[in-house]
């Protein structure tokens, strides 16, 4: 799921996870594992925003991807991760 799905279009300073996240169909985002992963990604993004003094919209997604990889998240195959520069 892309990070931009957690960022509201018209409100700054907010990261929406769980039932508040955007997606079509939205029912795919409401299972336990999706909510768990969105929660950790959203919390990690919030911490990175504080650390780097930026808004969620301005956060460099590579910082979040690095954090998620360090936490053991699967972001794709080794080839894809290499293509992303991570």
**How many separate domains make up the residues?**
1
Q: Report the helical percentage.
A: 40-55%
Instruction: Catalogue the unreliable spans.
Output: none
Global geometry: globular
Indicate the structural class. mainly alpha
Oligomer: single chain
Strand residues, percent: under 5%
The average pLDDT is 86
Number of helices: 3
The overall strand count is 0
Order of SSEs: HHH
> What distance lies between the first and last C-alpha atoms, to the nearest angstrom?
17 Å
Main β-sheet description: none
Radius of gyration: 13 Å
Descriptive overview:
The protein is mainly α. The chain has one domain (about 5-85). It has helices at about 30-50, 60-70, 80-85. Helix 1 (about 30-50) crosses helix 2. The model has no long low-confidence stretch (mean pLDDT about 85).
Q: Nutshell version of this structure?
A:
This protein has helices at residues 32-51, 61-70, 78-83. The chain has 86 residues and is an all-alpha fold.
